[in-house]
Design goal:
By secondary structure, this protein is α/β, with parallel strands linked by helices. The protein has six domains: about 150 residues, LON domain-like (Archaeosine Trna-guanine Transglycosylase, Chain: A, domain 4, Roll), CATH 2.30.130.40; about 90 residues, Methane Monooxygenase Hydroxylase, Chain G, domain 1 (Up-down Bundle), CATH 1.20.58.1480; about 50 residues, no CATH class; about 180 residues, 3-Layer(aba) Sandwich (Rossmann fold); about 80 residues, Helicase, Ruva Protein, domain 3; about 200 residues, 2-Layer Sandwich (Ribosomal Protein S5, domain 2), CATH 3.30.230. The chain contains 30 helices and 25 strands.
Length: about 800
């Protein structure tokens, strides 16, 4: 069976007495012959049963029904084939598709089928009129359609209409008139019908048939045979309906002016709430809102934040769920409840264990490890301390990023990372305001959500590569994030409430410090991580790189092994870098070639030795001869520092006939050009002591060139090298090819300190240089140079440029001339 429902809306029901039902009701009520109405109800004791949902049919009620269920259709057809009588009973549960006798109320209404229309989809549309109450006494058959024996329920008649009955009837008419008026209808015609009814029972049935009420309440009215009790039940429902109609009218008047679509939807929802509330049918709040409220209570938000979130939730409840603003608020609430407001991870305060973890993950880097252990020690003694802001500075590939993971592991904290390279939009840090379509929090808040705790290790990678354009300056937005005195009230534009970042341990990484704004740099504790020596690289390769590459390429340690000499040759001839990335790539390349041979069936073990490295990696990329066995006059070896570490720098000076013009090439920056001018001025001032013709500044042009012309070069540290190359060109004396130098000069010849001493010495050692000349004031930086490296490399410190010339003179036969320059 399918649904048997009345297909009439509320307005049609309210207008029912004004149209077709009015005259029909009068026919039944006003008897032409004056006889008792029972005579008109001459119907058989056995008739088909029609089960209906959601409606109770009363006496004198005319209504259309749509009949679609198979048994229901057959019941209607059987009634039409007989005397058109059918017994209508209401289902107890609307969800039952095949109701039996136990699924319907036994008290129902005998109805007459007045009209029937067959629909194209096979359903029937019938117009029925309720005639008399009746109850089922026996089920005659259930298939193909139910047939029951019934017993009519006689209407009790009052001997006389007393004051109580009259009061109840007047109340019913007045309440009905009030409802009709509140709904904006003309009550005159309907009230004429109601006034013509003088029997309490009939009046109750007539009103009840047009009242909106629950099925259980309507069924109780139908089963009540006492006309006075029935009328009292109807009056109670009328009072509720009057209150609902009054509230509805009030809401309509308040929302009438300027109502657009969204306001109309809000108004209808408010109506629904009011109706349910007044009818005592309050339902529990929507499950989703209850879940959100529960999450808000459990999130542990600060008082002011929770107040704002609850305010937004209340706004959401009063909005249509499909509106765009509701979607924005729902997303906002999801972010707020998922952020870690109070959840923290417990720090690992076992200093010895943390030290062991740091040593396991990284070789050397003693300064970094010491700083982390200091932080843990202070944290153990003072749990309320604020998180430090560390900045690791060093060339690529030295392990800055992986150090962050190591720190998180040693602290037993969550780790989250954000790359700042190329970031140019301030909104990436602070988020977008919720007024924009598709807005979302900044990367800081996103990282906190990803970490899931208030105290993660948060790595800000490549902080030196943050840009700025018309969208704002992200580095300025980072000022609040990286200030321990301010970040406890960090405000993201999307959240629009303060968020506490004071428990976060921020770790920044950079290759250079020059591009970091001073105000931002001032908030960070800088820890420099220089490049590794050859010996350190061999140890790191054996401990970390080799096992990782062997495992990643599907090999085992008994299948492939590297000798220390082979690793040394790979480092010298194939990588030459401050970090370890290229070294790991070359080791991986060897492992892949071995893996291919093993996959092809080779059973032997492979031992990588210095002699067979080229078999796997090809021709060496860097040769010792590149340093040049003999430097021509006018060429000196300098040392430079870049973001990728130290480098050997060849400075070439040539003199040619001219008018004293200084020519510089090789993409030299302004500071380096000034160093070249200072070197020339010093040479001119000392020309008499250098046995140089003093008129060279008027008859010779000086051309200074630094090879790798496509690479920009800047800085004052090439001053000493420029002077030596210039003196070599002017005196036509070559310099030693195993001596490299660095230092800034003044016009008086003083050698000033420079930076990057360790990286420059590492580059010199990698290039096979035997002696390095540095400023005397940089002697303190030698403590950072590994002891084993200083054993194989002679380091000379100088205070004046005159001390350098005898150190770089090459040929013993010219020693006298060299000494003369110094005298």
């Amino acid at each position: 069976m399918t649904d048997d429902k009345k297909n009439v809306n509320d307005d049609e029901l309210n207008q029912y007495l004004q149209t077709e039902q009015g005259p029909a009701a009068q026919v039944v009520i006003q008897e032409e012959d004056g006889e008792d109405s029972e005579r008109k109800m001459d119907f058989p004791a056995q008739m088909p049963l029609l089960a209906v949902r959601d409606i109770v049919v009363f006496n004198y009620m005319i209504l259309p029904l749509f009949v679609g269920r198979d048994k229901s259709v057959k019941s209607i057809e059987a009634a039409l084939n007989d005397k058109r009588y059918v017994f209508i009973a209401t289902q107890k549960d609307d969800k039952v598709e095949e109701p039996g006798l136990d699924d319907v109320y036994h008290t129902g209404t005998v109805a007459l089928i007045m009209r029937m229309l067959k629909m194209p989809d096979g359903r029937l549309k019938v117009l029925v009129q309720g005639l008399s109450r009746a109850k089922v006494t026996e089920v005659v058959q259930e298939d193909p359609h139910p047939v029951v024996n019934i017993e009519a329920i006689s209407e009790q008649e009052l001997e006389e209409i007393g004051p109580d009955a009259e009061a109840q009837m007047r109340t019913a008419r007045e309440q009905s008139e009030k409802i009709i008026s509140l709904r904006g209808m003309d009550p005159s015609e309907i009230m004429s019908v109601l006034n013509s009814v003088q029997e309490p029972g009939r009046l109750a049935d007539l009103i009840a048939s047009n009242l909106r009420m629950p099925t259980e309440t309507a069924q109780a009215i139908l089963e009540d045979v006492d006309p006075m009790e029935r009328l009292k039940r109807v009056n109670r429902q009328l009072m509720k309906e009057v209150e609902v109609a009054s509230l509805q009218s009030k809401i309509q008047n308040m929302a009438k002016e300027g109502m657009d679509k969204a306001q109309k939807e809000f108004f209808l929802r408010e109506q629904l709430k009011a109706i349910k509330s007044e009818l005592g049918e309050d339902e529990s709040e929507d499950e989703e809102f209850e879940e959100l409220r529960s999450k808000i209570d459990k999130a542990g938000m600060p008082k002011e934040v929770k107040k704002e979130v609850v305010k937004q939730l209340n706004r959401l409840e009063n909005m249509h769920p499909d509106s765009s603003e509701a979607t924005v608020i729902r997303t906002y609430l999801d972010w707020m409840v998922e952020l870690p407001w109070k959840k923290t991870s417990k720090d690992q305060l076992d200093i010895k264990k943390a030290e062991k973890i740091l040593h396991e993950d990284h070789y050397d880097l003693e300064k970094v490890k010491e700083r982390i252990l200091e932080y843990l020690s202070v944290r153990k003694l003072n749990p309320k301390m604020k998180g430090p802001i560390l900045c690791f500075v060093g060339p690529p590939g030295v392990g800055k990023t992986s150090l962050g993971r190591s720190i998180a592991r040693s602290l037993n904290r969550k780790f989250t990372r954000m790359s700042l390279g190329g970031m140019r939009d301030e909104a990436e840090i602070r988020g977008h305001r919720r007024t924009y379509i598709g807005s979302m929090p900044g990367r800081i808040i996103q990282g906190m959500k990803e970490a899931g705790t208030r105290n993660p290790v948060f790595m800000l990678d490549e902080i030196d590569k943050v840009g700025a354009d018309f969208r704002g300056d992200p580095s300025s937005a980072l000022l609040e994030v990286l200030d321990p005195e301010q970040n406890n009230t960090f405000t993201d534009h999307y959240l629009n409430v303060p968020y506490d970042l004071s428990k976060v341990m921020f770790v920044c990484t950079a290759n250079i410090l020059d591009t970091i704004p001073p105000a931002l740099l001032d908030r960070m504790e800088v820890i420099r991580i220089p490049g590794y020596t050859e010996q350190e690289k061999i140890k790191i390769a054996k401990r970390y790189l080799l096992p990782r590459q062997i495992e990643e390429n599907g090999l085992t340690e008994d299948k492939v092994s590297f000798s220390d000499q082979a690793l040394s040759r790979i480092i010298r001839d194939y990588t030459r870098e401050s970090g370890l990335r290229n070294l790991e790539r070359e080791i991986g390349s060897v492992c892949r070639k071995v893996a291919r041979q093993v996959a092809e069936g080779a059973e032997k073990s492979f031992r990588i030795l210095p002699g067979n490295v080229s078999k796997y990696l090809g021709v060496p990329r860097y040769l010792e001869e590149e340093r040049e066995k003999d430097l021509p006059a006018g060429v000196a070896l300098g040392l430079a520092w870049t973001a990728t570490g130290g480098e050997i720098l060849h400075v070439e000076v040539s003199t040619l006939p001219g008018k004293g013009k200084l020519i510089t090439t090789g993409q030299l920056g302004e500071v380096m050009k000034e160093s070249a001018q200072a070197a020339l001025s010093y040479a001119r001032a000392r020309s008499d002591r250098l046995n140089v013709n003093p008129d060279f500044a008027e008859k010779r042009d000086i051309h200074i060139h630094v090879p790798s012309g496509a690479t920009p070069k800047e800085g004052p540290s090439a001053g000493v090298t420029l002077v030596m190359a210039l003196l070599s060109a002017l005196t036509n004396r070559p310099l030693r090819n195993d001596v490299a130098m660095t230092g800034e000069i003044t016009l008086r010849g003083r050698v000033m300190p420079v930076g990057g001493i360790k990286e420059k010495i590492l580059a010199a050692a990698a290039a096979g240089v035997k002696m390095v000349i540095i400023p005397a004031q940089n002697a303190k930086d030698l403590s950072e140079v590994p002891a084993e490296l200083r054993k194989n490399l002679e380091v000379k410190t100088v205070e004046h440029i005159d001390e350098v010339w005898p150190l770089v003179c090459l040929e013993p036969s010219r020693e006298e001339g060299c000494q003369a320059v110094n005298e």
